[in-house]
Amino acid sequence: MSEKKEPSLWEGFKAFLMRGNVVDLAVAVVIGAAFTNIVNAVVKGIINPVVGAIGTKNLDHYSSCLSSTCKGEEGIQIAWGSVLGATLSFVITAAVVYFLMVLPMAKYLARQEARRKAKEGTQEIIEVTELEVLKEIRDALVAQRGTGHDQQER
User: Taking a C-beta distance cutoff of 8 angstroms, is the pair 50, 92 a contact?
Assistant: First the structure.
């Protein structure tokens, strides 16, 4: 009996790295890191000044005090401005990713699928037409043989 040799640790690691989804994930992380800089620049350069028209330009300064005495860093403060800034960054990132990447790709894939289905439909029509022609040829040959046999028997 021959036993199957299990792949070595190195071969397993190479197979893991060469999977398509691992490579795609690595590319996504690198692109995401670069994209984060763009989103941060948009938030700091556009969103914060718009919010600054209402109050302060830096959202980190918005906070609420839970204790009776809040002077400077003393007391219990909730820094809701930081949360608001992070939320705005997330929403902007999600919107840009959706409208500039996901939506166009979904439309592209839908068009590709429609083309593929249309091509399959055309092939089915052609195949049905060829099948019908072959049936007609068969019926004509059977009819000729039948006519020839009838005349020979008489």
Answer: no
Q: Write the DSSP symbol of residue 78.
A: E
How many beta carbons lie within 10 A of that of residue 59, not counting itself? 23
Residue ranges of the chain whose pLDDT lies below 50: 154
Predicted confidence at residue 124, as pLDDT, reads 66
Distances (CA, A) of 14 to 17, 28, 30, 63, 110: 5, 20, 21, 50, 34
How much is the pTM?
0.48
Confirm if 72 and 14 have CB atoms less than 8 A apart.
no
Give just the sign of the alpha carbon dihedral 135, 136, 139, 140.
negative
DSSP β-bridge partners for residue 77? 65
Q: Give how far Cα 84 sits from Cα of 35, 45, 49, 53, 60, Å.
A: 20, 16, 14, 16, 9
Rounded to an integer, what distance in angstroms lies between the CA atom of residue 85 and that of residue 83? 5
Q: Residue type at 109?
A: L
Please say whether the beta carbons of 60 and 85 come within 8 A. yes
Question: Cα separation of 30 and 99, whole Å?
Answer: 20
